[in-house]
C-alpha cells in the first residue's frame, strides 16, 4: 500500500522534472532568438526619445516582455530541478511564477499592437493610431498586472475572494483585448500600412492560444485536482501551458517582425538621421 502510494507520488514529480528540463531548453532558445531579433529591430527603428546606443538597444531587447517571459519560465523550471525532492512550498512558488508569467504575454500583445501602428516609420511619435486608441493599448496592462497579483496572492494566502476577483478582472480584460484586436483587424486595413495590418492579423491568431492559457490560469487556482501544480496531470501542464505559450510567443515575435522587418535598407535612413541630429558624433 505504501509502496504504491510512493510510486504514484514519484511519477508526477519525475514527469514534472522532465517538463522543467524541456522548458529550460525551449525557453533558452526562444530568449536567444528574441534577443537577437529585438536588438536588430531596436537598432533599425528606435522609437524611443532617448539617444540611440548599442547599450540601450541591448537593454531594451533583454528586458522586453518576450525577453522577461522566458527568463521567468527558466527560473521557475530551475527551481524544480534544484532538488530531487521538491516540497509543497516549492511547487506553490513555481505555480505562482507560472501565473506571473502570463502578464508579460498580455503586455506583449499591447506592445505589438502599438508597433503595428508605427510600421514603416522610424523614430518616436509616429503612430498612425489616434491618441485615445494608444491610451487604451497602454491602459489595459495595468488591470492585467492587478489581476495576476490578486490571483497569485489569493492562492498563496488561501483567500479565495482575492483569487476570484483576479480571475474576473483577467477575463474582462481578455474579452476587451479580443474586441480591440478584432476591431483593428477590420478597421486597420484603412488605418494602417499593409505590414501593420498583417501584424494585427498575426496577433489575432495568437488570441485563441492565449485564451487556453487564461483558462489554464483560472483552472490552476480553482479547477479539479488534476490541475494541481504539485500532483496534477503533467500532460495538462504541457498542453495548456507550455505548448500554448510556445505558439503565443512565436506568433507575437512573427507579428513584430512583419511590422518591423529586420531586412532592407530603409532602416538605415533612421540611423543616419539620428547621427545628423547629434552633433559631435
Task: Furnish the topology, listing elements before pairings.
Layout: H1 2-45, H2 54-62, H3 65-81, H4 88-100, H5 102-116, H6 131-139, H7 141-156, H8 160-191, H9 194-222, H10 234-259, H11 267-276
Domain DUF7702: 15-253
Transmembrane segments: 20-37, 58-81, 101-120, 140-159, 165-186, 198-216, 236-259
Protein name: DUF7702 domain-containing protein
Please indicate the percent range of residues in DSSP E strands (runs of 2 or more).
under 5%
SSE topology string: HHHHHHHHHHH
CATH topology: Rhopdopsin 7-helix transmembrane proteins
Can you summarize the main beta sheet? none
Low-confidence stretches: 1-9, 266-281
Domain DUF7702: 15-253
Organism: Penicillium daleae
Protein name: DUF7702 domain-containing protein
Pfam family, one: DUF7702
Question: Could you characterize the architecture of this molecule?
Answer:
The protein has 281 residues and is mainly α. The protein has helices spanning 2-45, 54-62, 65-81, 88-100, 102-116, 131-139, 141-156, 160-191, 194-222, 234-259, 267-276. The protein is globular.
Brief summary:
This protein is mostly helical and 281 residues long. It has a single domain (2-276), classed as Rhopdopsin 7-helix transmembrane proteins, CATH 1.20.1070.
Amino acid at each position: 500500500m505504501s509502496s504504491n502510494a510512493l510510486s504514484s507520488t514519484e511519477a508526477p514529480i519525475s514527469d514534472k522534472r522532465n517538463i522543467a528540463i524541456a522548458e529550460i531548453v525551449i525557453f533558452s532558445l526562444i530568449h536567444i532568438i528574441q534577443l537577437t531579433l529585438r536588438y536588430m529591430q531596436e537598432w533599425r527603428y528606435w522609437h524611443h526619445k532617448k539617444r540611440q546606443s548599442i547599450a540601450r538597444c541591448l537593454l531594451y531587447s533583454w528586458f522586453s516582455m518576450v525577453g522577461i517571459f522566458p527568463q521567468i519560465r527558466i527560473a521557475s523550471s530551475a527551481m524544480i530541478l534544484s532538488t530531487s525532492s521538491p516540497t509543497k512550498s516549492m511547487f506553490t512558488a513555481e505555480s505562482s511564477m507560472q501565473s506571473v508569467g502570463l502578464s508579460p504575454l498580455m503586455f506583449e500583445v499591447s506592445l505589438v499592437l502599438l508597433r503595428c501602428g508605427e510600421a514603416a516609420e522610424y523614430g518616436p511619435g509616429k503612430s498612425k493610431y489616434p491618441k485615445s486608441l494608444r491610451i487604451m493599448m497602454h491602459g489595459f496592462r495595468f488591470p492585467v498586472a492587478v489581476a495576476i497579483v490578486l490571483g497569485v496572492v489569493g492562492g498563496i494566502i488561501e483567500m479565495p475572494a482575492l483569487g476570484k476577483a483576479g480571475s474576473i478582472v483577467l477575463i474582462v480584460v481578455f474579452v476587451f483585448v479580443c474586441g480591440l484586436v478584432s476591431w483593428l483587424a477590420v478597421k486597420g486595413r484603412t488605418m494602417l500600412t499593409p505590414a501593420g495590418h498583417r501584424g494585427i492579423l498575426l496577433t489575432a491568431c495568437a488570441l485563441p492560444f492565449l485564451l487556453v492559457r487564461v483558462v489554464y490560469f483560472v483552472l490552476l487556482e480553482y479547477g479539479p485536482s488534476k490541475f494541481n501544480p504539485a500532483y496534477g496531470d503533467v500532460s495538462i501542464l504541457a498542453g495548456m501551458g507550455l505548448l500554448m505559450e510556445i505558439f503565443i510567443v512565436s506568433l507575437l515575435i512573427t507579428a513584430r517582425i512583419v511590422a518591423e522587418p529586420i531586412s532592407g535598407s530603409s532602416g538605415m535612413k533612421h540611423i543616419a538621421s539620428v547621427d545628423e541630429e547629434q552633433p559631435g558624433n
